[in-house]
Write a structure and sequence with these properties.
The structure is a single chain. The longest helix is centred in the N-terminal third of the chain and has 8 residues. This protein is mainly β and 459 residues long. Pfam families: RCC1. InterPro entries: RCC1/BLIP-II (IPR009091), Reg_chr_condens (IPR000408), Ub_ligase/GEF_domain (IPR051210). Keywords: Repeat.
Length: 459
Amino acid sequence: MVKPTSFQWVNFYRPLIFRPYSTVGPSPTPTQFTSSVGVWDWSLRRQQLQWAYQRGKERQTRKPWQFWISKRIDPIEQEKPWQIHPLLQPGPECESRGKVQAAACGLAHFAKVVDGQVYTWGSNDYGQVGPIKAAASWGAEADEDVISPYLLTDLSEVRIRAMACGYYHNLALTDQGQVWSWGAGALGRGDEVYDSFPFAIRYFEDIQRPVVDISASDGYSVAVTSAKASNGPIDPDPTTPHETYIWGYPPCPDGSSTKYLSPALVQSLVGCRILKATCSRYQLSVLHTLASDPHSTALSAFSVPGPTPSADPDELVPLNYPRYEEIPESHGVFSLAPSWTCSLVTAPFDPSQVVYLGSGWGFHAALLADGQAYVLPSESDRDWFLLPIPDSTPLRGLAVSSFQTVALDSSGQLFSWANLERPWEVVDQLCQGQAPMLMGANPQWTHVVMQEDLGMVYG
């Protein structure tokens, strides 16, 4: 099969740009699709495309641990105003016709699981799609932007049940509790690498802890394991406590800068049972029972101060690339306490029914098994309140990022509350009951995933 050029990838993503809050140009109308997969990209300044014509020259001289960017403006950005683009576009279909079992997206790439196998596509600047050329662990994937879903044959001998994507790296969780990683950054293997080939993180096998859940964002990752040693399948015992491990460049509540090249045990969560753990750019949020009282539940956040609210989007969201910083390296234990912990004793729902936990700018959102969704502002005296969905329709899916919150209802309608330039105002839209914007509709859509301003809805 002939591989597409990088310019074909540009053409694939350009129609997906949309800025709902702009007053310039006509307002796009929601579009109906027969395709069960759609993708969207709301960033007008997609830096991954701005150096599309310069990367080849840079790649000839840079080493695998060196990354930089050309600030030259992509002429495609100037020639195609965002107003003429439709709201959503059908995404590329898997070569396999099986059902999508799980999906995730990074800053400019996607991954989904079909029949236990992983398909990836999008930007492969740092090997996050995979070994397309299969010539080396690094350096062979430059300028390979992939449109058609690429089957990761390196994972063909294991069955994947869950995926998680950071900005430039991926985690895949097998049904035996093993975690595989690839891409760029601290991948949990004891060093910082730029590796397009998936490899298992042997740390969890060495300590005989099967992994039950994974999450990733930015340049760090989290894994939740059983606290009981085992070399076999995951222990389904609901009374067994968990252990939470973190690696990469995690958010540090005390403002310090440190990195963990191998998984480090989160000390403050030892003895807790983890119901949900989710990573976002500025904080790790964990819904858990208390070690001292397994019948009580709390929400804890390990967060760093976000950027100062500013009207300048370039100051608000600086460029991010795989991090290889000369900062202190820590080992073994993540000893920092949460920035804040909120008891869920008075929550208007059963915490055990939470199927999704999301963290936005100044708030958390939880989706329950019955389709109801609740929002908790982080810096106010307000308690949890129902997400203001039109007609109070039960939800199939929910996704939260720094810039936006999207909800997929039971009829396949995709709603959004968003503000790319002033993301701290999204929580006000939610708290004040502001009606969301309808992005599109398709009865086949059942799930939605998102990372910052990139997302995918599928069925």
